What does this fold into?
Amino acid sequence: MIYDFIVVGHGLAGAILAYTLRKKGHQVMVIDEPKPNSASNVAAGLLNPLAGKRFAKSWMADEFIPFADAFYDELERRFQKPLFYHKPIYKIFSSIEEQNNWMAKSAGGGWGDYIQDTYTQSKGEPAVHDENGGIMIGRGGYLQVSEMLFLLAQELQELGLLLPERFEMTHLQLDKEGVRYKHLVAKHLVFCEGYQVIHNPYFKWLPLQPTKGEVLEVKADNFAPECIYNKAVYVVPVGEGRFKIGATYNWRQPDEQVSREGEQELTERFEQITSHTYSVLEHWAGIRPAVRDRRPLVGVHPEHAQLSIFNGMGSKGVMMAPYLADHYAAYLAGQAELLPGVNISRYLSLYYE
Ligand SMILES: Cc1cc2nc3c(=O)[nH]c(=O)nc-3n(C[C@H](O)[C@H](O)[C@H](O)COP(=O)(O)OP(=O)(O)OC[C@H]3O[C@@H](n4cnc5c(N)ncnc54)[C@H](O)[C@@H]3O)c2cc1C
It folds into this structure.
């Protein structure tokens, strides 16, 4: 059996790419070493069209979001399970100055249904600190990432299309027809290893910046908001009085251990949003595959046409991966030009250095 693709890594990137390639009729084999604290497994799963301090619409949000909506919808129907929760995101103004900045920025209009409401004073939710008001952002929500990965992996396993083990470079052979890996033969291999690509001899020249993030799950009493809150951190209601609070950003010391500093930062910021009493239930740390220019890393190796990479989703994998997987599959089939903004060719000078 000659596979069309071997996909290495079954986090958000590899899982969505493998599913997309299979849907387009390709024969795909996935190799993944299960990792409970992978970026995907610890992610809060947020999709926010308007992230960042400068109130800018996320890059390509108009293209990515409808695609992501349809993609997660399809998986929900396939597995008969809710996976993506559409929820407005209440971005609380941290100061009057921030409110003024937004008022000036929004005066020109053009935000469509990304903005549901603007509050110039508190919305009035008890025990929530929003004295300067905020904006209610539409078209966002959160994905149960680990649940989705579990369902997709289970399906692959049932079909015999998942090798749950570490991919070892020493077993990889490249030849004119494609690649050989142990007993597997394929025309093409795509690496989706998340931050671990920094150890990959074929792609470690790319400027991936491993960025640690920590997340808490807390239980808060008598707090049942309809929206996700955001002021320095996100407070995501995940049901039964539980909330995910995240996340921290640390690129100076990207280890995978939870820390007291991380917990303190998250609880302090949570307390700046609400004075509801709470207890911490869980604490996770993972490493994001972030990139210097905050754009994904997608494309074929400059010298080995049978190897490529689909990575660098940074902190926006939930929003970007479905569209980019479809786009990359079309590119690999010769049906589209690769978006210059994601193409690894933008860093080619680093390869030849
Ligand atoms: C704390 C935190 C919060 C986040 N919150 C959000 C959020 O709210 N919204 C959002 O969109 N994004 C969020 N992110 C970012 C998001 O998690 C990433 O963009 C995304 O998960 C990256 O997916 P990935 O598949 O590239 O990498 P990973 O999730 O790291 O998956 C890589 C997979 O490849 C496997 N692998 C690697 N090397 C090998 C090998 N040699 N052999 C076999 N298997 C291998 C790993 O075991 C793993 O299963 C968050 C990240 C963190 C850390």
Summary: The chain has a mean pLDDT of 96. The longest strand covers residues 278-291. Residues 208-291 form a domain with the D-Amino Acid Oxidase; Chain A, domain 2 fold (CATH 3.30.9.10).
